């Protein structure tokens, strides 16, 4: 179960450099606990440098940076520098992406993703340890080798510990690995509270037990889709947008296992077929209210804060709400109770 600590609420930071500083500053001023960038059309690390420069309190992380598009030494340098510049507020969130993107978009090797990620994290710790303690770097693995580190290439010491590492995981192997080697778990929006409770948390617990750690030493982070509005028209618009997004996620074979927990696995092939035809509106119409409310928090703005808290209670330690078709005024009203 989730820890007894206060639920942290996070927000997104645009990965466009021109927008990152203002967005991060606004998150901090509005009482958020953390800000995350994503690796989509822009690099996820560079905006966090600007975010660190214009904030002093909130945690800053990547959700996610694609690990296998890089090597551990490159990521170790980025993590070390952002941790130093942010004065210990950086979280390194990593994910695998999928094989076609790694091989055909990034032109990098793909194999045994769980084993490769385990080694990637171990290599990061070995590099940071050598920089921190001055020991010899001697890392030899199945996928990565790091054995040269001279004074010229060793960064200056810093007073902060190495960055926390969060891993994105849905499948059992990666989720158990996350509990064993990472400091936190990054969840996907296409995950229900039931899936988290019945599947994710027990698997994370196995990994934590293997590492000899307590649940209180680990953070579970969730992205939760939210459909709300200040009137019936706004709420209906948000619900329609949320249905389409859930249908899009559900069309991906990787998330059939999430649908199957609720007995909806047979819907996935149909959503996938329609996605190939670009029938996005039709896909959304296949989701009834029960499915919508299973994967999204839905309700008028005056009720949504309590509903979001209920969705997270006892399950996650931090939440990143994803609002559909909502104004900033609406979002602020919805999250008011979290920032008391």
Topology:
Layout (H helix, E strand, L loop, with lengths): L7 E5 L4 H13 L4 E4 L8 H8 L5 E4 L2 E2 L5 H14 L4 E6 L3 H7 L7 H21 L5 E2 L4 E2 L17 E5 L3 H10 L2 E3 L6 H19 L7 E9 L4 H19 L5 H6 L5 H10 L3 H6 L3 H7 E3 L2 H12 L5 E6 L4 H7 L6
Parallel strand pairs: 1-2, 1-12, 2-3, 3-5, 4-5, 5-8, 8-9, 9-10, 10-11, 10-12
Antiparallel strand pairs: 6-7
Can you walk through the features of this model?
One of its GO terms (molecular function) is oxidoreductase activity, acting on paired donors, with incorporation or reduction of molecular oxygen. It comes from Mycobacterium bourgelatii. Pfam families: Bac_luciferase. This is Luciferase-like domain-containing protein. This protein has 340 residues and is of the alpha/beta class. 47% of the residues lie in helices and 15% in strands. The strands form 2 sheets. It has an 8-stranded parallel β-barrel, surrounded by 6 helices. A two-stranded antiparallel sheet has the order 6-7. Helix 1 (17-29) crosses helix 2 (46-53). The model has no long low-confidence stretch (mean pLDDT 94).
């Amino acid at each position: 179960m989730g820890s007894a600590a206060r639920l942290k609420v996070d927000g997104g930071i645009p990965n466009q450099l021109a927008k990152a500083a203002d967005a991060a500053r606004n998150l901090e001023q509005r009482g958020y606990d953390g800000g995350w960038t994503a690796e989509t059309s822009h690099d996820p690390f560079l905006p966090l440098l600007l975010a660190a420069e214009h904030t002093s309190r909130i945690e800053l992380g990547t959700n996610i940076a694609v690990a296998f598009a890089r090597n551990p030494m490159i990521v170790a340098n980025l993590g070390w520098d952002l941790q130093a510049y942010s004065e210990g507020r950086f979280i390194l969130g990593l994910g695998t992406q999928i094989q076609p993107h790694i091989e055909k978009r990034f032109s990098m090797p793909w194999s045994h993703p769980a084993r490769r990620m385990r080694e990637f994290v171990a290599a990061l710790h070995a590099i940071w340890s050598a920089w921190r303690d001055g020991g010899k770097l001697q890392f030899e693995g199945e996928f990565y080798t790091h054995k040269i580190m001279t004074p010229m290439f060793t960064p200056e010491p810093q007073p902060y510990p190495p960055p926390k590492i969060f891993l994105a995981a849905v499948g059992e192997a990666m989720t158990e690995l996350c509990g064993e080697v990472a400091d936190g778990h990054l969840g996907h929006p296409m995950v229900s509270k039931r899936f988290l409770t019945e599947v994710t948390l027990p698997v994370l617990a196995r990994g934590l037990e293997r590492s000899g750690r307590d649940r209180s030493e680990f953070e579970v982070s969730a992205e939760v889709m939210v459909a709300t509005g200040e009137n019936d028209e706004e709420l209906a618009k948000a619900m329609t947008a949320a249905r389409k997004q859930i249908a899009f996620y559900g069309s991906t074979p990787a998330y059939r296992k999430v649908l199957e927990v609720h007995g909806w696995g047979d819907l996935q092939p149909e959503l996938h077929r329609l996605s190939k035809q670009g029938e996005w509106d039709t896909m959304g119409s296949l989701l009834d209210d029960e499915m919508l409310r299973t994967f999204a928090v839905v309700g008028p703005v005056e009720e949504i804060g309590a509903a979001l808290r209920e969705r997270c209670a006892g399950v996650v330690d931090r939440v990143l709400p994803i609002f559909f078709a909502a104004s900033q005024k609406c979002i602020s009203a919805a999250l008011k109770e979290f920032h008391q």
